[in-house]
């Protein structure tokens, strides 16, 4: 049985075309929290596939992507304020591999 983990994924992509591609790929693995910040529940194998897909798109000299693996204990400690948190909807149209 695959164990899913909580992930925070954020990025800073310098080129508009690459930014659009990165956003589309990451959206298929999680849900958007802010413009360039996503949350995801996925196993390590799935996240590794996502990382490989993103490495094919980005320019490692100018772009930046950060993955945080958040343990269940710390995930439960999250506090959400504001309208984004109150209306947070989970997109169930994820790519499941």
Helix content: 25-40%
Compute the number of structural domains. Answer: 1
Q: Architecture, CATH level 2?
A: 2-Layer Sandwich
What's the helix count?
4
Low-confidence stretches: none
Q: Write the CATH fold name.
A: Alpha-Beta Plaits
- Give the overall silhouette: globular
Tell me the major beta sheet.
Answer: 4 strands, antiparallel
- The residue-averaged pLDDT reads 85
Describe this structure in words.
33% of the residues lie in helices and 26% in strands. The chain is α+β, with helices and mostly antiparallel strands and 97 residues long. A 4-stranded antiparallel beta sheet has the order 2-3-1-4. β2 and β3 form a beta hairpin. The longest helix is centred in the first third of the chain and has 12 residues, at 16-27. The chain is globular.
